[in-house]
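Table 4 source record.
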Amino acid sequence: MKIDVLSLDGAASGSIDLDDEIFGLEPRADLIARMIRYQLAARRAGTHAVKNRADIWRTGKKMYKQKGTGGARHGSARVPQFRGGGRAFGPQVRSHAHDLPKKVRALALRHALSAKAKDGSLIIWQSADIAEAKTKTLRNSFAKIGLSNALIIDGAQPQANFQLAARGIPNVDVLPIQGINVYDIIRRDKLVLTRAAIEALEARFK
């Protein structure tokens, strides 16, 4: 697949051949959905907790006599039936993470990249370098090329000036190639990859 390479101001800067094994697949929504569910589950804190009957402090004395009251036979005020008692089957501290095979995770990333390429939402930049860390200047550049909601992936270490300028722009994320993930790719309208990111991706999936 051949795609144009642009400069930061939107000017043409050549073209590049993308690997069809990474960017030319027919996107599978089920794989992408499984990966997003896997990512979001792993992010959950799981610190929710309630007190069950073992965690409630109340006297252990039998509430009333066993027979003759005409009511149910109770022996503890800690049970969930009573106000102030423990909660039955409430959430406890736990991990929500679940397993997903490594090959499925890798395939889901390729399908997410292919989905952006198929939708025409993939942009290739020569590089993501700017002279000064000025948010206003970068915002104006983005406005000229219509970039308002995007994930920008650079090489192993994005330029410091670009990262500093971009972090003040809402709905724009900048990540190194090690941080590329399906959830962030899908949640942003545009995916911007630099040449360095393309080379790293092709080496990763080789």
